[in-house]
Design a protein that fits this description.
Elements (H helix, E strand, L loop, with lengths): L3 E6 L5 H13 L3 E6 L14 H7 L4 H7 L2 H21 L5 E6 L1 H11 L8 E5 L7 H4 L5 E4 L11 H17 L10 E6 L4 H13 L3 E6 L3 H11 L5 E6 L2 H7 L11 H6 L3 E6 L3 E4 L14 E5 L2 E5 L2 H16 L5 E6 L16 H14 L6 E4 L6 H26 L1
Parallel strand pairs: 1-2, 1-3, 3-4, 4-5, 6-7, 6-8, 8-9, 9-13, 13-14
Antiparallel strand pairs: 10-12, 11-12
Helix pairs in contact: 1-7, 2-4, 4-5, 8-14, 10-12, 12-13
Length: 412
């Protein structure tokens, strides 16, 4: 069955390229809908949604943008407008996939629009920046970046191949049927190399109880992705074993997830078990990348590309305060579980990050800032001991059971 694929980009500077792409999509038997985000000149081909409409959706008239001749403002307005337009097209079922192309500006505008779409919706950008750190473009969404190889500037022996293959790829994506969905409650669990044993045990136990477990690696993007899926109501409960991204957030590490980490579950009121897992470490790339002000700190080379820095009691106290403050905003059940014999593999007796006083400053800050009614459970073991995982699962299952019973009571 023929599908409609949205094409988004600047028809004043990339019109020839979008014309080629649209013909390729048509050749595969699909329809297209073109959204113009250009602001420099007249469009090369007639769009389905004009740049005037996009600018208006962004809160400014195209004429005003042109008169002010401020490229930064124009990109911001068109990005905002494109996001609203694309989201509305999706909600109306007017498109079943979307593809954009361009350089830094085109990728930025297109990706801003695509980030409003849910996980699983086909989205692709032919981009000159499809390499290196693309987190700013992708956020936590499954946008496919297709390397342009050469600049998006005309049809030549390289771009012809790229555009042809990209068109075939987006057509294949919209043609594919979604895999059968397993109708099980979904639990999000957070993991790091230093908490793998704990999370794997917990995952196995939860799956035995007929829950589907999504494990997120806490590399900043992992935490952001989990937040996005929780907000989009894919997740029924959170086993937040690994809150290490807060260490990077406060100390300038490379795996920070942003200041809204933990907000989605609190806002939705879904059950949460929170553990200060791996808050003993801040992440940097290779040792040569560690900031000079940290050169005297306790550093550990986890692998040639990752260097860990042990957090201080002061940093741990700040993390504990943040975790408590986030939990205080929760509209649903939440509990803390504290491992008194270490929050990671490296933070255990005899290991290089073992620092009980630093851990205790985190635990004390949680207790001091947590509002009454939120339980805190302490266990005299390491986070990776089997009994800890079992207790974490027990707490979460009890919350889910209590919530289920409450729902039945309310319905009755």
């Amino acid at each position: 069955m023929s599908k409609v694929i949205g094409l988004i980009g600047a028809l004043d500077t990339k019109g020839v390229e979008f014309e080629f792409l649209s013909k390729e999509i048509d050749r595969h038997g699909h329809k297209f809908l073109i959204i113009d985000t250009g602001v420099i000149g007249d469009p090369y081909l007639k769009p389905s949604i004009s740049n005037e409409e996009v600018a208006s959706a962004g809160g400014t008239s195209l004429k005003d943008l042109t008169n002010r001749n401020d490229r930064g403002e124009a990109m911001a307005v068109m990005a905002a407008g494109a996001a609203k337009v694309v989201r509305e097209l999706y909600k109306r079922g007017a498109i079943q996939g979307i593809i954009g192309m361009g350089g830094t500006a085109g990728t930025s505008v297109s990706s801003n629009a695509m980030r409003t779409l849910p996980i699983g919706f086909p989205k692709m950008i032919i981009s000159t920046v499809a390499a290196g750190n693309t987190r700013g473009y992708l956020g936590a969404k499954d946008i496919v970046l297709y390397p342009a190889v050469v600049d998006v500037a005309g049809i030549n022996r390289i771009s012809r191949i790229v555009f042809t293959r990209a068109a075939a790829a987006i057509c294949g994506m919209v043609e594919s049927e979604d895999a059968a969905v397993i109708n099980k409650p979904v639990i999000a669990a957070t993991m790091f190399g230093n908490t793998t044993q704990c999370v794997e045990r917990a995952r196995t136990q939860l799956e035995q109880e007929q829950y589907e477990v999504l494990v997120f690696h806490c590399t900043g993007t992992g935490g952001q992705t989990m937040e996005s899926l929780v907000a989009d109501e894919y997740i029924d409960a959170v086993l937040d074993i690994t809150t290490t991204e807060w260490a990077d957030e406060i100390a300038g590490g490379v795996f920070a997830a942003g200041s809204d980490r933990g907000d989605a579950a609190a806002n939705r009121g879904i059950p949460q078990v929170i553990v200060p897992g791996c808050v003993d470490m801040v992440n940097f790339w290779a040792r040569s990348t560690v900031p000079p002000q940290y050169s005297h700190r306790n550093l550990y080379e986890w692998n040639p590309n990752i260097t860990l820095m042990r957090t201080t009691p002061e940093e741990n106290a700040r993390i504990g305060q943040i975790l408590a403050e986030k939990a205080n905003t929760s509209k649903g059940p939440v509990a803390f579980l504290l491992p008194l014999q270490g929050v990671s593999i490296l933070d255990s007796p005899g290991q290089p990050f073992w620092h009980p006083e630093a851990n205790q400053s985190c635990f004390n800050a949680i207790k001091a800032n947590l509002k009454a009614g939120i339980p805190i459970y302490e266990m005299d073991c390491n986070i990776n001991d089997a009994v800890f995982a079992e207790r974490a699962v027990e707490l979460l299952l009890q919350m889910l059971q209590d919530k289920s019973n409450m729902g039945r009571t309310d319905h009755a």
